[in-house]
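fyi for ur records
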Amino acid sequence: MGAGEVEFASPVKAITKPVAKLVIHWLENWSLPDAAVGTIALALALIGIFAALARLPRLMRDLFLSRAQGAFFRLMRGGGVRGILIGVFITVLVQSSSITTSLLVPMIGAGILPLEGAFPITLGANIGTTVTALLASTAGTRDAVTIALVHLLFNLAGIGILYPIRAIRLIPIHLGRKLADLSMRSRVVPILYLVFLFFLLPGTVIFVQRVLSGG
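which gave:
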């Protein structure tokens, strides 16, 4: 009670924001319409993302293979509770679970980190991403703290109930491998997967909900 406003500065945003502003300012100097500036900026951002992802596996291999016996690397490979805690730690530092999981992908692709070791780190990232909201909510209302706690406890409960059971925690790993095998056979599969998961499925749920509610 009586706390002031709390802000948490992301180190990643601190690095990328000046670059993004510089690019936008450079595009605006060409007297382009706002829509054109936004479209070009989006295209450059996507190119940068794919270029980074293409470079990361080789970079990770060069950085880690010579240090594969390091304590931190051994913890990452070990999985279990230690992996979950590492996922929480990294995500709290960078304040983004997307960054944590994006770092894991090239490490797995380079053969540095086994899938079983990356899975608990991903779960930890899902917990870590709730910490920033929880801390920020302490400067807000009671409802804000309640929602932040619900978010945190939901993730903790899911992991606490499902992860200890080996047969259950292997299900997403098994499904991920099957999807990866299908994606290697046809590049259409991941596109269809994304369209279904992020557009068709949510759209169907929203449509059914509106029909049932009479809206």
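The chain has a mean pLDDT of 82. thats all i got for now
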